Amino acid sequence: MTDGPLFSYRAKCRCSSLRSDPFQGSAAEKLQKLHQEVCNHRPASASVGWRERLGFSRRLCETAPQGLYLFGPVGRGKSMLMDMFYDTVPVVEKRRVHFHEFMLEVHAALHEIRGQGGARDPLSIVSADIVARTWLLCFDEFQVENIADAMILGRLFQGLIKAGAVIVATSNTRPADLYKDNLQHDRFAPFIEFLCERLDILELAGPVDYRRENLRAMRLYHTPLGRDSEAALDDAFNRLTAGATPMTERLLVQGRTVEVPFTASGVARFTFANLCGTPLGAADYLAIAKRFHTVILSNIPYLPPTRRNESKRFLILIDALFEHNVNLVCSAAVEADALYPEGDGAAAFQRAVSRLLEMQGDAYIGMGHLVTTESERATEPVASAH
User: Fold this and answer.
1) Buried-most residue among 35, 238, 298, 299 (CB within 10 A)?
2) Is the separation of the CB atoms in 320 and 285 below 8 Å?
3) Is residue 89 located within the same domain as residue 221?
4) Whose CA is closest to 316, among 284, 354, 358, 364?
5) 186 and 217 inside one domain
6) 343: containing domain
7) CA proximity to 318, closest of 357, 347, 345
């Protein structure tokens, strides 16, 4: 076999796209083993075609391969390695999704089933439906921050794995520390035991924070606009994602979708028109800030007083990114302090200027991405396990 994450990783090291790292290499070997096992697996719950009946395709199997939970500090290459696994595994029924987005979808599905009435165990229905469509699930930034998720995860994952799902997850948190020091943690503990039993737990904790290293080595604010600044943002996206193939993603926000034109490895790329030239609000910007550790934003224009609405949206966007420690690489027509120098709201806009400057500093770059801030966690409602 010459295909799989390990071969992709070695190829990138040979062409100097990546620096060879023994910690990443070990994780790539683990993912390569899982890649081989997944190639020979098909859940018994999946539909059976003529190729399966004649033995020309993957075998139907009740027991799924053991998945993988890859955890460690930020910037070690977890998302990059999972991208390599996902891109090379020849499975049609696969999905790579941010864990927070996945859980929002699960809660929406549960709400719909409960609204119809009559279902004794909505979670089992949701689990079976997920596996029927996508039995290989790759979760990025696996994190349990709220009680609504914590109270259903055990039964949800039991249902997924029983139905034949294979789960690969990346996280900044070791399993024992998930949902730590939160309400009803004792009721969450059985899920941690189940997770450690059914998934292979691997720590990726090399000494080098490649994300921080790359960000500190590049300019983060490019001006003026033009070919050079656009090329710099192209290079930044390529370096921060290790050349991963970008994809489009849709975030579900209060019943509507926010489109992310280009994303890979936790990095999202937008234009100013995408985010501030359309009627988006605080909830949309918060969803982006929670989902991505780095945002690349191009073509920030000079903002005269007639563009007050756009300047106001830009201020709300910067607040959301800043409060969640999201890294920002951007291009603008002028320096930050000249973006919106006069007009209604110019004084308040100085907060955006101050934060744009702080976001370029080493101290800010060294902070970890916050999926949920302390103030957000304090205001979460208590949820039922039913």
Assistant:
1) 35
2) yes
3) no
4) 284
5) no
6) 210-365
7) 357
Q: What are the CA-CA distances from residue 352 to residues 194, 268, 283, 340, 359 (Å)?
A: 45, 20, 18, 10, 10
Element (H, E) at 61: strand 59-61
Give the distance from CA 76 to its chain's centroid. Answer: 15
Report how far residue 8's alpha carbon sits from residue 79's, in angstroms, rounded to the nearest whole number.
Answer: 14
Q: Are residues 184 and 222 in the same domain?
A: no
Co-location of 189 and 237 in the same domain: no
Predicted model pTM: 0.77
| Residue 376 within a domain | no
* Residue 17 and residue 163 in one domain: yes
Residue 203: predicted pLDDT = 96
pLDDT, position 181: 81
Tell whether 163 and 230 lie within a shared domain.
Answer: no
Q: CA-to-CA distance for 92 and 133, rounded, in angstroms?
A: 10
Q: What is the pLDDT of residue 146?
A: 83
DSSP states of 166-228: EEEEEESS-GGGTTTTSTTHHHHHHHHHHHHHHEEEEE---S--HHHHHHHHS-SEE-S-SHH
Mean pLDDT of each 10-residue bin along the chain, 386 residues long = 88 88 95 94 59 44 83 89 93 90 89 82 91 93 86 92 93 91 85 94 91 91 96 94 84 87 92 95 94 95 93 96 96 95 87 94 87 60 45
- Cβ proximity of 45 and 62 under 8 Å: no
